[in-house]
Amino acid sequence: MRFSYFTHQRLNVGPLVNSTAYVNKHSLSENRANFHQWLVGFTDGDGSFSVVKQNNKWSLIFKIGQSTYNLRVLQFIKKQLGAGNIYVEKNKKMADFRIRDLNTINTILIPIFEEYPLLTTKFYNYEKFKNAYVILSNSTLSKIEKDKLLNELSLSIVPSDYISPAWKIVNNTVSNYETASRIMTKGWLIGFTEAEGSFYLVNKTCTRIVHGFEITQKLDKIVLMSIKYLLHINTNVSTKKAGYFSIATTNSRAIENIINYYHNTMKGMKSAEFKIWNRSYKKHKGDYLALEKIRNNVRIMKNYPHVVLNKKKE
């Protein structure tokens, strides 16, 4: 049995209608599109698509995991989708948002990832997930036939040189802002940054602390190349141990570009971290003692999220 996927892209054409009803409807549609792009980016960072067999029964699981420190981002996702459940581990350190219901997967989840394709290797796992849904929902197949097909599907492994089909539009090559922006939307990048990005303060010398930004990703170098161009970061994508890639900068001009790009955009605790980082750049750049204190406060906030920081002293 062969399966295929279709990626749908919307084209905004035609004149705007000057009416309050149209503007409200257009705004709702735009907000929904922004959320969907954000969700795909966040999923590319911290989401997973699983096809599992338990007690001789197959099931599909879409999951996004987060530290309970960032529980509010899972609550935001659940509210926006109007579906799914949140599970908090017994130790209360980790939480998951999950969707398992096949009807919800078909009517809510798959349409989002068809319109806005995943940009990382997770596209491969999504394809398996979607094809598994096709098998499970096919009433003409017997249980034996479904088991055979799902076993074959579950054994498939992502090739080492795999690149998401989304990049075919630019021939799997990104060399400037224009090619990057053809594939990667701002909504996607905000979501991916909330999952994988880091706004931090780092010692340059024993008497100097500077602002830094970094995103690390395994396998998908093309994703970091695009981020480099979209955020106007001059440094090159570097290779880390175990096949990880990183784009990082402490350059003042790049940091200011990043501040402008992410202003009032994020939904979870990364938003709080960004605001502290942003404010400390504008108010305390070059002030070692002030920045050291802020860095320590942020560490406390991450380790003990219920501790209220004294914002007036930041």
Automatic annotation (TrEMBL):
Keyword Mitochondrion in record: yes
GO cellular component: mitochondrion
UniProt cross-references to InterPro entries, sorted A to Z: Homing_endonucl, LAGLIDADG_dom, LAGLIDADG_Endonuclease
Residues of the signal peptide: none
UniProt keyword list: Mitochondrion
Domain Homing endonuclease LAGLIDADG, first and last residues per copy: 39-133, 189-278
GO molecular function, one term: endonuclease activity
Top-level division of the source organism's lineage: Eukaryota
Chain's role: Mitochondrial DNA endonuclease involved in intron homing.
Official protein name in the record: Homing endonuclease LAGLIDADG domain-containing protein
Species annotation: Cantharellus cibarius (Chanterelle)
